[in-house]
Every structure is written in structure tokens, then in C-alpha cells.
Amino acid sequence: MLMMEKSMLIKFIVIPVITVISAVTLITVFNISSIKEYQKSTVQEARKSFIEKNKKVINKKVKHIVKAIEYERKSFDLELKSNLKKKLSHINSGLTSFYNKYNTSHAKKDLNIQDELLSLIKHKNLIHTNDNYFVIDKITGKILYSGLKDWQEGENLKDTIDKNGVNVYDAILNSIKNKEAPFYNLNCTKEKEYLNDRKKLIAVSLFEPFNFIIGIVKKVATIDKSVQQKIAKRLQSTQENVKDYAFIIEIDNIYGGNNFGRVVVSNVPVIDGKLSDDKRDLRGKYHRKEYLRGIRNKGEVYVDYWYKKPNDLENIGKKLSYFYHYKPWNWIVGCGFYFDELDNEIKSINTSLEKKTDDNITNGITIGLLALFISISILILYTKNYFKKIKEYISKIEDQKNLFEKEKETFKSIYENSSDGVLLLKGGKIFDCNHSTLRIFDLNSKEQILSKTPIDLSPKYQLNNEKSMDLVEYYSKGCRQNSCSRFKWKFNKSNGDIIYTEVTLTNITNKDVDIIHAVIRENTDIK
Q1: Would the pLDDT of 373 be above 60?
Q2: Distance CA 258, CA 431 (A)
Q3: How much is the pLDDT for 349?
Q4: What is the rounded distance in angstroms from the CA atom of residue 189 to the CA atom of residue 309?
Q5: Backbone angles phi, psi at 25, to 5 degrees
Q6: pLDDT tens, position by position, 301-350
Q7: Helix H or strand E segment including 139
Q8: Dist. CA 1–CA 345, nearest whole Å
């Protein structure tokens, strides 16, 4: 009997030892495998998030530059047109003054007043050499004076057609009628190429005593060039030591080829500033062909390639750039980012997970040894009741676990599937929300709302014209004191639209930490 008990005792000891060791080994292997899978998915998610976030940043920067270009163009255009109108007004005033003196002069018989007036305009043209003046007879369409080398005096404009098929004489007459904007954009005429296939801006006015149409001509290319130089200089001056620098390329041939364009702005020097699409990047990719094809097809494109780093030209890095075709000037406006920060982030993730793996192995061994010691002690002391107690204990644990999991799933289902928005706040900041919250605020992901405060999501004033900031403090304090608070509230959607809601705050204390549970219900009747 003693030998049997001893044999049974040995069996009861050996079997749990083997079982515990096997279980610890399997759990450790499983944990390591799970961590590896988690590591892989985390790295993929980090890469995706990094790229999407930075794509938005460079896209926004490029669009901001394009808006600045448009603003400068419009401002320069308004200023130029204002100056041209002033010049024409000044000429008209001078001619009127001279004409009035002539009519009161005793010597007017000795003067050819028309020739004298034309002489005054010619003199004005000689003084202001950057301005090209002309005079047309409104009745006949005949050119009486021309500061343009290809508009000859005596020539008639009535039969002159520009490249858009517009009669030049008729267009000038229509411009005179619009006193607020007496301007006409002239294209190169079909008969003559005096504009080198470029546009000119013409400002005109009428000197009524002689039906003179007086005009000033400015080259549009010269106007654009001034604005381009201003934009390029300003942008270049803001890019020193900037990694996600912007760049501008002036395109001569959108279909590529040798010297298809030149660099206007960049943080990385290019030889002669000229670009050819047969050049590969530093890893052998024809990236220029790719972005030219993209802007031809859609006007914009993202392209990744390997390129020299600013302020460290000896090293290269992977880069993703956004290219946008600004058609009025045939510019490519671009901006990009290097993947260095992503590599550092991935390295940090791997280091953290490797440490977690080591900790899991250590904890598994520790727990296994502890479980083994407890098991052996219990078996020695309570051999007869061991299996019964273990079975009851395991059954109880499983019941509690199942109950807990059921309650957990129930709470999670209520939380996630609620039609009302639910926010969890700690320290005044949002640290979690459900999907209905994203729908209410018209957001795509939780990252857009996490770490924000209710003030960030609210207009400055509420329904009673009280400041949102004051009311947030008031209701939060009331919630902490009374455990609950309910009120009407206005929020801002992501696009700036107002949402009218009813909000219920509940204070929850978890491990001495106050958490506010906020339920947001839309209510358009509040309006």
C-alpha cells in the first residue's frame, strides 16, 4: 500500500511537472508567434499611417503655394491695370488741356491740332520706353500713331483678326465701352507674328474731341515673369534647412525628352538647372518619366524615388513627392518627404516588441516555475482531494471567465453599436470614442479626434451666447460633484457645419482616476 501510494504520489508529481513545462513552452511559443504577427501588422499600419499623414502635409503645402501664386498674379494684375488706367487718364487730361488752350488761342490758325496732339502722345512714348502707345481713328479704324514696331501708321485694323478669331478693331471698341475695365487681351494675329505667339494686355480710352482711341500695350509674358521671379525668390528664401522642401520646375515640353524643363526653386542643386527624362534616380528608376506621365493624365501625381538629401548631398534617401501641374505658367509645383522618420519609428517599434518578447519569455518561465511549485505542494498535502478541488476550481474559473467575457462583449457591443456618439475623457482630453462619434463629426478615423478637448470640437459660443470654454468647465465641475450632468450643446463638424445635440456626462472613477463618459445625441429640434 505504501509503495502504491508512493508510486501514485510520484505519478501525481511527474505528470503535473511535465504538463506545466509543456504548457509554459507552448504558451511562450504562442506568445512569441503572436507578438511577431502583431509586430508585422503594427509596422504595416505605422507605414501606412506615416505615408497618408505626410501625403496630406505635402499636398496641403503645394496647394498653399498655388494659392499664393494665384493671389500674387491677381494682385499684380489689379495693380498693373490700375496704373495703366491712371496713365491713360493722365494723357487724356493733358490732351484736353492742350485742346482747350488751342481753342482759346489767337494763333490756332497756324497749328495743325491733330498733329500736335499726336506729337504729345509720341513724346510720352519716348519718355516711358517700357510703355508702347498707339492711336487709332475710331471712325475709320486707321492707325494714326504706333509705338509698336509691327503696327504701322496708316494701317487699318478693321480687317485684323487675332488667333482666337476675334476682330481686333471690334474688341477694342467693346473695351472702350467698359469704363471700369477698358482692357483687351490680344493674341498674335494670323497675318503677323509680332507677338512671338504670346499675349499682350491692351488698355484703351477715348479722346472724344477727335475720336482718338488711345491705347497702351503690355506684354503678358513680361507681366508673368515679374510675378514668377517674386514667387520663386520668396519661396527659395523660406526653404533653408527644410527637409520637406518645395520645388518648382518650369516645363518646356510636357512629353519629356532632353532638357524638357528647368528647376526654378529647389533645396538640392541641379547642374545648369536643366532636367532630362532619360536620367534615372539613384536606384535606377525613371521617376521623371513617371511624374510627367502623371501630370499629363491627371494634372497631379505622387511618385516615390531615391534622391539626394538637402544639406547632406553625399547621402541618399527614399522620398515621396507630390507633383502638381500649374497650367497658366506650365509649372510643376511639388513637395516631398523622406522616409527617414518612418525608418526610425519602425526601429523603435521593433525594439519595443523585442523587449516585450523577452519579458514574455521571462514571465512565462517565472509563472511556470511558480505554478509547478504550487502544484507539487498541493498534490503532496491534498493527494486525495486534489482532482476534485481542481475540477471545482477550474469550473468556477471558467464560469467567471465566461461571465466576464459575456459582460465584456455586451458592453463592447453597446458601446460600439450605439446610435449615439460616446466619448471617454480623461484629464479633459478624449482618449476613446465609438463609430457613431465619427459619423456625427464626419470623421474618417479615431486619430482625428483623440487627444482633443471638447473646446476643439465646439464653436466659440453656445446657444445662450455664453462662451463654450466657460460652459465646459461649468458642466465638467457639475459632473464631478453630482456624478452626472445633462445639457444642450453645439458642436462643429470637420467641415465646419454646426451640430445640435443633447449631451449626458457621467463621472466614472477607475483606480482613483476620474473618467468622464459622454453620450452625444443629435437633436435638430434644438435650433
Answers
A1: yes
A2: 55
A3: 76
A4: 48
A5: -65, -45
A6: 999 999 887 766 677 888 999 999 999 889 999 999 888 878 777 887 77
A7: none
A8: 66
Closest CA to 143 of 220, 215, 40: 215
Q: How far apart are CA 378 and CA 20, in angstroms?
A: 14
Edge-to-edge strands of the sheet including 300-309? 274-275, 261-265, 246-251, 331-338, 312-326, 300-309
CA distance 281 to 305: 6
Q: Are 411 and 434 in contact (CB under 8 A)?
A: no
Look up residue 358 and give its amino acid: D
- CB contact at 8 A, 337 and 54: yes
Q: How far apart are CA 252 and CA 273, in angstroms?
A: 13
Q: List the beta bridge partners of residue 511.
A: none
- Contacting residues for 520 by C-beta, under 8 A, at least 6 apart: 420, 421, 422, 423, 437, 440, 489, 491, 501, 502, 503
Q: Are 269 and 258 in contact (CB under 8 A)?
A: no
On whether the CB atoms of residues 99 and 118 are closer than 8 A, the answer is no
**According to the model, what pLDDT value does residue 292 have?**
93
CA geometry: angle at 443 spanning 490 and 472, to 5°?
A: 30
Q: What is the number of H-type helices and E-type strands within the chain?
A: 9, 16
Identify the CA nearest to 121 among candidates 84, 147, 86: 147
Q: How far apart are CA 189 and CA 150, in angstroms?
A: 11
Contact of 47 with 349, CB cutoff 8 Å: no
Let me know: does 439 contact 425? Beta carbons within 8 Å: no
Q: Per the structure block, which three cell numbers stand in for 456? A: 476643439
3-state SS record for 399-418 = HHHHHHHHHHHHHHHHHHHC
The shares of helix, strand and coil residues in the chain, as percent rounded to the nearest 5, are: 50, 25, 25
How far from 53 is each of 201, 337, 456, CA to CA, in Å?
A: 43, 11, 20
Q: Alpha-carbon distance 204 to 172, whole Å? A: 7
* pTM of the entire predicted model: 0.55
Per residue in 187-246, pLDDT (tens digit) is 655 444 443 445 778 888 898 888 899 988 887 766 778 788 888 888 877 766 566 788
What CA–CA distance (Å, rounded) separates 25 from 371? 13
Question: Model confidence over 102-136: pLDDT tens digits?
Answer: 777 655 544 577 888 888 888 776 666 667 888 99
- Give the separation between CA 491 and CA 458, rounded to whole angstroms: 4
For helices 2-104 and 340-381, the axis angle rounded to 10 degrees is: 160
